[in-house]
Amino acid sequence: MSANRNADNRRVLVRLLAVAALMFGFGYAMVPLYQKFCEVTGINNLLNPDDALRNTQVDTSRKVTVEFDANLHGLPWSFKPGQTSVSVHPGELVHVVYRVSNTRNHPVTGQAIPSYGPQLAAAHFKKMECFCFARQTLGPGESREMPVVFVIDPALPKDVNTITLSYTFFEVAGAAAEPAPQLRRPGA
Amino acid sequence: MEATHAHGAGHAHGDGHSHHPKGIMRWITTTNHKDIGTMYLWFSFAMFMVGGVMALIIRAELFQPGLQYVQPEFFNQMITLHGLIMVFGAIMPAFVGFANWMLPMMIGAPDMAFARMNNWSFWLLPPAGILLTASMFVPGGAAGTGWTLYPPLSIQMGIGMDMAIFAVHILGMSSIMGSINIVTTILNLRAPGMTLMRMPMFCWTWLITGFLLIAVMPVLAGAVTMILTDRHFGTSFFSAAGGGDPVLFQHIFWFFGHPEVYIIALPAFGVVSHVIPAFARKPIFGYTSMVYAIASIALISFIVWAHHMYVVGMPVAGQLYFMYATILIAVPTGVKVFNWVATMWRGSMTFETPMLFALGFLFLFTIGGFTGLVLSNTAIDVQLQDTYYVVAHFHYVMVAGALFSAFAAVYYWLPKWTGHMYDETLGKWHFWLSIVSFNIAFFPQHFLGLAGMPRRIPDYALQFADFNQVSTIGAFGFGLSQLLFLYVVLKAIRGGEKAAAKPWEGATGLEWTVPSPAPYHTFEEPPVLTEAKGHA
Ligand code: HEM
Ligand SMILES: [Cu+2]
After folding, report:
1. Same domain, A48 and A25
2. Which residues form the domain of A74?
């Protein structure tokens, strides 16, 4: 095989390797790209305050039961809602609390992730304030009452009478020492 | 492709270099494209057997409702390993094997562009195969996530998961090296006068498949690396605890995964585009449109990934976009099917085994394409997602599509490889047993899926029992038929009627200008192409 041809082959090899390396990077680049995409389009706005409702009219003609649920995912905490359920009018500003305490003698950091049942209620459940908007670090034996402030959008479909708000606390490994930062995922 | 070879083609002089190592070292150190092609093909067959046994374990369990032979955890591990082994261990290496054997001969090159790297790409495969198979025996067992490796489960499992991830890394590296080699060979080593648009169709399909592989295998490698670091190094790309998102994995995975199905399908299209013209004794109809169809299928395959994710939560606009984009792929695919049929139109056809498998491919792949079109419709997919309908769909495209095309390729080129004709009667038996048992195994699965039987579950409701029994019987028939295939191949290797340089009357292309069996070194001097007439 001539030297010429070897040089040609090498040139193609280098280019194709560069493409492969770039595509490996592209796989990683998808992480911030999707984050940006969700931010711009307002998808997956889980851990940020919702925009205040434009229509603040309270719909006194119906009541919705909101049930509260609390789960731990491998954390040495106790975590409970301050109330099992409340009955509210759509459009009404509601305050509730969750209680959490650290049963260990060292600080632990956790992140709560909310979810809703039924799923379609999520779009109509507006949280103004929530302990899930930031990581929570509890000192040894520390207990805390954490607020959630929300409004149910009056546009909630009429056949939804009960919404379950469920939080799961996940441990943020290795973060206990640091001051609780704002969560990485920005959202809209 | 007409060729006159002053003295280039086929040195029959016992390959001049008698200094290669003998015995096992010959195979470990070889840089000869034919040796490496042979190793790829045997590796692929071995993995096909391993993956096949796993499929039969699954089917045995599904013979009756309730749990008979295996526990659900083990059932899930079988599903995962079967999928990974069939895709990465059986089908992909088979077509890389064909590429190694045939591409240099089709374009009049002496060997692959990077012969040493070619050896490495092959020898990466056995360790990966062993890792996957051995992961069954570690504490906690193999990955039970399904071949798609979705988190959160893939972040939670034991060491078997790490072995699967490592195996995927190795397999990815091997495919990337293999494709760089193939692309470079095709771009740089074509005989003088063989312009791109005079290349045989198999070369075209592999050129484009090579690019697809180089583009998407690194993305898969990245995705599984993220799982690995989520598992062990405290990152949270996909783990919700640190603000990660499991759905993100699905987006990244399917950005790889959909092009992957064309990585499997395109070389199969290439083989069929050789076999049908050869046995219809007419040049391929619409060569140029075939090339454009391949290229557009490849391009569109990058923008349709989320049709695998209609139900994970997506805005309606997104669902509509992915639905229409997916349906668009049916257009170039339809062009190809049309061209194959038009090639046969008024051809003088004969039905030797390679042609039978190519026709089997044509019928059954088209059925798989139609069910794919059904699934592309969001409104319908919401119902059928993760049911046996999907299992039926992708086995029609992957088994009756890619695997049948691989069988066609083996029968078509076996005389060139071994110098002997295979036993035509047994070959036909293999075909008829395969196609009948395949349909017995997989056709009823459409009905099971439509009736709502979920996939990846070892138990099912009583009313599904009848069709599942039929399916299991078909699956065992299919598995056993493949032993006949092994026998036919071994028999042809050991002897049989001597094959002429061009054993098929209608075959075209440079590979048929060298003697059968192809000498160890071919086209050390490039052949001289005359006339521009005809393509392979
Ligand atoms: C002997 C022929 C085969 C039989 C009987 C067979 C059977 C099966 C069965 C029963 C499943 C499990 C379906 C479920 O419950 O989800 C499955 C899954 C699968 N098969 Fe096959 N199969 C065969 C060949 C192949 C081949 C050649 C491929 C090649 C690419 C393949 C690719 C897959 C894939 C990708 C999955 C999905 C695995 C997953 O769910 O993660 N199969 N097969
Ligand atoms: Cu797809």
Report:
1. yes
2. 64-184
Name the domain count of chain A.
2
Do residues A174 and A88 both lie within one domain? yes
Cα gap B169→B350, rounded to integer Å: 44
Rounded CA gap, B347 and B54, in Å?
A: 42
Atom of ligand 1 nearest to the CA of B457: 15
Catalytic residue annotation of B? 82, 111, 147, 174-175, 258, 260, 262, 273, 307-308, 333, 336, 455
CATH number at residue B343: 1.20.210.10
Same domain for A69 and A159? yes
Residue A155, domain CATH? 2.60.370.10
Give, for all 536 residues of chain B, the pLDDT tens digit: 334 343 333 334 444 444 567 778 888 889 899 999 999 999 999 999 999 999 999 999 999 999 999 999 999 999 999 999 999 999 999 999 999 999 999 999 999 999 999 999 999 999 999 999 999 999 989 999 999 999 989 998 889 999 999 999 999 999 999 999 999 999 999 998 899 999 999 999 999 999 999 999 999 999 999 999 999 988 889 987 677 889 999 999 999 999 999 999 999 999 999 999 999 999 999 999 999 999 999 999 999 999 999 998 888 899 999 999 999 999 999 999 999 999 999 999 999 999 999 999 999 999 999 999 999 999 999 999 999 999 999 999 999 999 999 999 999 999 999 999 999 999 999 999 999 999 999 999 999 999 999 999 999 999 999 999 999 999 999 999 999 999 999 999 998 889 999 999 999 999 999 998 999 888 988 888 875 444 44
Q: Which ligand is nearest to the CA of B44?
A: 1
A145 sits in which H/E element? strand A143-152
* B341: nearest Cα among B278, B277, B403: B277
CA distance linking residue B382 with residue B478, whole number of Å: 31
| In-domain check, residue A58 | no
Is A119 found in the same domain as A97?
yes
A29 touches B at CB < 8 Å: no
- In this structure, the residues whose C-beta lies within 6 A of any atom of ligand 1 are B 52, 55, 58-59, 79-80, 82-83, 86-87, 90-91, 146-148, 391, 395, 398-399, 403, 441, 455-456, 475, 478-479
A84 and A164 share one domain? yes
Into how many domains does chain B fold?
1
Contact at 8 Å (CB) between A122 and A116? yes
Assigned domain for B24 exists: no
Looking at the structure, tell me whether residues A160 and A113 fall in a common domain. yes
Instruction: Look at residue A24 and tell me if it is in a domain.
Output: yes
In a domain, A155, yes or no: yes
- Whether A45 and A68 map to the same domain: the answer is no
DSSP for B102-116, written as a single string: HHHHHHT-SS-S-HH
Q: In this structure, is residue A59 part of a structural domain? A: no
In a domain? residue B29 = no
DSSP B278-309: HHHTSPPTTHHHHHHHHHHHHHHGGG-GGGG-
Q: Which two tokens stand for residue B317?
A: 């606009």
**Contact B269/B332 with Cβ under 8 angstroms?**
no
- Alpha carbon of B184: minimum distance to chain A alpha carbons (Å): 6
Rounded-to-integer distance, Cα B154 and Cα A25, Å? 22
Q: Is residue B15 part of a domain?
A: no
The residue whose C-alpha atom lies closest to atom 41 belonging to ligand 1 is: B146
User: Could you list the residue range(s) of the whole structural domain that residue B79 is in?
Assistant: 37-240+247-519
Q: What DSSP letter does each residue of B214-255 carry, written as one string?
A: HHHHHHHHHHHHHHHHHHHS---SS-GGGT--HHHHHHHHHH
Nearest ligand (C-alpha, residue B85): 1
Chain A hits for B223, CB-CB cut-off 8 Å, are 27
Q: How many separate helices (H) and strands (E) can be counted in chain B?
A: 18, 2
Indicate the pairing of strand A162-171 with strand A108-117.
antiparallel
Query: Are A74 and A132 within one domain?
Result: yes
Question: Closest to A27 (Cβ–Cβ): which among B113, B223, B241?
Answer: B223
